[in-house]
Amino acid sequence: MLITCPYCGPRDLSEFTYQGDGNRQRPAPNSQDLDAWNAYVYDRQNPAGDHNEIWQHSGGCRIHIRVVRNTLTHAISSAVPVRGHHGGKA
Amino acid sequence: MARSIEIERLSPLAQVYRAGPHGNFEDGVGVALSEPRPGSIVQLAAWPGEERRMIDAIRTVTGLALPDGAGGGVSEGGKAAFGFAPGKFTVVDEKDGLAAAFAKAITPAIGTVTDLSHGRTVIRIEGPEAEWVLAKFFAIDFSLAAFPLGAGRSTTHHDVFAQIQRTGPDRFDVHVFRSFARSFWTALCHGSEEVGYEVA
Ligand SMILES: [Zn+2]
Predict the structure, then answer these.
(1) In order of start, what are the domains of chain A with their CATH numbers?
(2) Which distant-in-sequence residues (6+ apart) come within 8 Å of B146 by Cβ?
(3) B88 Cβ contact partners less than 8 Å away, ≥ 6 residues apart
């Protein structure tokens, strides 16, 4: 599997570290909303298809990358830097 | 102000550095291996939005004009610079004192200066088989079209970091951790045996 790092270009999977589900919404640090914390820690969509993920090019430029990976085919349809692409909130 | 101190520079490769031809060199030497031992290796990191001012500072201090684009770099006159990550640059000078010069030019508002002169070792591989030999170690494209002259790449060899700059059409400078340099040099020698190599 190759991931095209936005800075370095296509690189082997072994240069990357998976940083988890990109759909998670972390509650504010002082939030006491237990349902929100529970959802952040445990709830996963686990799709058979396109999945939003956070990866780090840990063995290269070390930036964090927002990746859309198909869990059935490993096809990667998008890879953009996390910086500047935070999703809902800037 | 920092006082200039005479330092005896020791190579981490001393115990394994054997000058002369090695391996299968009867039909010609495929690569030359050497240790350039630059006096200065500095890493610069610009805060977001300060990349332009950082590139201007590199030009002011070294005279090197970095090309635009990810991994762009230049190597000339005993100096070299290349991007290795967004807003981050490695700068090399055969003379020492580069970190002190950058510390003056790069204000805290622009970014940071890290002196790695004693933390990195530069290993040079040059010759018609340099791309072939390096491709055994690193899973990146070394062809001139994909890896232009002067450009830099951040990658790993067995999970250990390396930065590589193409400093000539068939010449690469590989920056590795000093503590890892002897191991990498030994592996590079083994990988070069089949094409014949000469240690300068
Ligand atoms: Zn990268």
Answers:
(1) 2-81 (3.30.2270.10)
(2) A9
(3) A61, B43, B44, B45, B46
Check CB contact of B157 with chain A, cutoff 8 Å. Answer: no
A12 part of contact set with chain B, CB < 8 Å: yes
Residue A89 confidence (pLDDT) above 80: no
Instruction: Give residues whose Cβ lies within 5 Å of ion ligand 1.
Output: A 5, 7-8, 57, 60-61
Identify whether residues B106 and B59 lie together within a single domain. Answer: yes
B73-76 and B79-85 beta bridge pairing: antiparallel
Interval B2-18: pLDDT, tens: 666 777 788 999 999 99
CATH number of the domain that residue B97 is part of: 3.30.70.1520
In a domain, B170, yes or no: yes
Q: List the one residue out of B117, B104, B70 whose CA is nearest residue B89.
A: B70
pTM: 0.91
**Closest residue in chain A to residue B48, using alpha carbons only:** A83
Answer yes or no: is B3 within a domain: no
Contact A62, A68 (CB under 8 A): no
Tell me the two tokens of residue A35.
Answer: 């349902």
Between the alpha carbon of residue B190 and those of residues B26, B90, B183, B194, the distances in Å are 16, 28, 11, 8
Task: Give the residues across from B31 on adjacent strands.
Answer: B197
Checking if the pLDDT of A24 tops 80, the result is yes
Average pLDDT, chain A: 93
The conformation of residue B139, written as its DSSP 8-state character, comes to S
Q: Are B113 and B102 in contact (CB under 8 A)?
A: yes
Q: Where residue A90 falls among pLDDT bands split at 50, 70, 90?
A: very low
Provide the pairing of β-strand B120-126 with B31-34. Answer: antiparallel
| Candidates A15, A63, A81; nearest CB to B156 | A15
- The fraction of chain A above a pLDDT of 90, given in percent, is 91
